[in-house]
Amino acid sequence: MASASLQFFAFILALFGVFGDIAATLLPNWKVNADIGSNIITAITQMQGLWMDCTWYSTGMFSCTLKYSILSLPVYIQAARTTMVLSCILSAFGICITTVGMKCTRLGGDTDSKNNACFVGGICFILAGIFGLVPTCWYTREIISNFLDQTIPESSKHEPGAAVYTGFISAGFLLIAGVIFCSSCFKRQQGAWIYPPKQHHFPSTEQESNAGYSLKDYV
Q: Where are the alpha helices (DSSP H) in the chain?
C-alpha cells in the first residue's frame, strides 16, 4: 500500500512536470527586458521566447512576432527548442507507460510486467528532466553573461523570465518522479533476488520407503 501511494505521488509530480514543461516551451518570456522611458505612454516590456518575440505596451496593447528563420537563431536557442520538445515527448510517453504500470491501476498484466513498465516510465521521466534542465541552464548562463558584459548597452540587457523558472521547476518534478518510480521497482526486484521463493523437497525417507516397496513387489 505504501508503494502504491508513493507511485501515485510521483505520478502527480510527473503531471505537474509535464504541464509545466509544455508551458515553458510555449511561453514567450524566456528573456524579459523592461525599458521604461520618461513618458508612461511609451513604456514597453520586451519578451523573447523560443518561438516568438513579444512586446507589451503600457497602454494595454500586446504584439508578437514569430521566429520563422531557424538558422538565423543563436545556437543556444536552437538547442533549447530541440531539447524542450524532446522533453515534452518523453514526459508524455512516461505518463502513458506509468499509467499502465502503476500498482493502483488494473492495467499491464502481471506484477513483473507492471514493474518493468514503471521502470521504463521512470527512465523516460529522468531523461525528460535532463532534457528540460540542460536548455534552461544554458539559456540562463547566456542571459547572465550578456547582462554582465560591459560592452553591451543597458537597453539590450535582459533578465530571466518566468518561462525559465517554470522550466527549472518542471525539470525538478520530472527528475523526482523518475527516481521514485525507478527506486520502487528496484526495491521489489532486489527483494526477489535476496529472498527467492522456497522450493519444496520431498523427504529422503519417503523416497527410500517407496524404493523398498518396489523391491518387495519384485520378490
A: 2-26, 75-101, 111-148, 162-194, 204-218
pLDDT of residue 62: 83
- pTM of the model as a whole: 0.78
Phi, psi angles (nearest 5°) of residue 178: -65, -40
CATH (domain of 161): 1.20.140.150
Instruction: Work out how many domains the chain is built from and give that number.
Output: 1
Q: Over the stretch 119-132, which tens digit does the pLDDT of each residue have?
A: 999 999 999 999 99
Domain range for 109: 4-27+74-194
Distance separating alpha carbons of residues 54 and 48, to the nearest angstrom: 6
End-to-end CA distance of the chain: 62
For residue 44, what is the enclosing H or E element? strand 44-48
